[in-house]
Specification:
The chain is mainly α. It is built from 9 helices and no strands.
């Protein structure tokens, strides 16, 4: 099991380095990347919107249930926003991308591989990594950041509506506590996590699809492996980044 995990991790890492190297040494990638960013964002915006509204609403209800026992409802907006920015927002959006865009990308590239379309591209003298993988990988990474910003704003709006209509908290009071819990470092940490998770989704899905073998069964296996390994790597990265951010915060607090 460990050997398989390390083999997959090493393969994804080497493939990612190869794609990034191709991106920097080749030209003409700008328009295909923009097209992928638009495609990924448009296909995911409805899901992110729906999830963002209910994530913000659910967190407000849960935090209000706890804070009301200690007469600390004035902290509701800050705690909710900080939690969404730090952890929930990047995680939820990355999981949504992994299940929707990641699986689609793995299936698309896997189908091209098993039907020998990628081999045909190589025979024509075109670099398949530049033509097929670079736009998809960079597009998913950038789209993850765009969707994070959209998701956070929608989540904040949903949380504010529920806090006002259900919890009967004035929206000005809700907003006033946000700066106390959400510093620029908190936002930077959320953006960093989103970039890391988006990179994982893009690299794993592209790798599994690009290296698929075995016909239709192989495509199905590639999609399954992409989903499993992506979620596993995201959870592992979430723990490591959260730990590093905590250590950095403690270091700043002691200096």
């Amino acid at each position: 099991m460990i050997q398989v995990f390390l083999h997959q991790l090493g393969g994804v890492f080497i493939f990612f380095i190869q794609v990034i190297r191709t991106f920097f040494i080749t030209k003409g990638n700008f328009k295909p990347i923009l097209a992928q960013i638009a495609s990924v964002s448009i296909r995911s915006i409805s899901t992110v919107t729906f999830a963002g509204i209910f994530v913000g609403a659910i967190l407000v209800l849960q935090f209000h249930l706890i804070l009301s026992k200690y007469d600390a409802e004035s902290f509701l907006g800050g705690l909710n926003t900080s939690t969404v920015v730090r952890e929930i927002g990047p995680l939820i959006i990355s999981f949504l991308l992994a299940g929707k865009i990641g699986a689609y990308t793995a299936a698309e590239l896997g189908t091209m591989r098993v039907t020998e379309q990628i081999d045909a591209i190589e025979c024509l003298g075109t670099n398949p990594i530049q033509y097929l993988v670079v736009p998809r990988m960079i597009g998913i990474m950038i789209s993850n950041l765009i969707l994070l910003v959209i998701g956070l704003m929608i989540s904040l709006g949903g949380a504010m509506m529920v806090a006002t209509w259900v919890c009967h908290i004035n929206y000005l009071e809700f907003m006033s506590s946000i700066p106390r819990f959400t510093s620029p470092w908190t936002i930077l940490g959320g953006v960093l996590q989103s970039l890391i998770y988006g990179t994982i989704v893009a690299a794993v899905s592209c790798y599994q699809g690009f290296t698929a073998t075995g016909g239709a069964r192989g495509v199905g296996k590639a999609v399954t492996l992409a989903a499993v390994y992506t979620n596993f790597y995201i959870l592992l990265a979430n723990y490591l980044t959260s730990r590093l951010l905590e250590l950095h915060q403690n270091y700043l607090g002691t200096t």
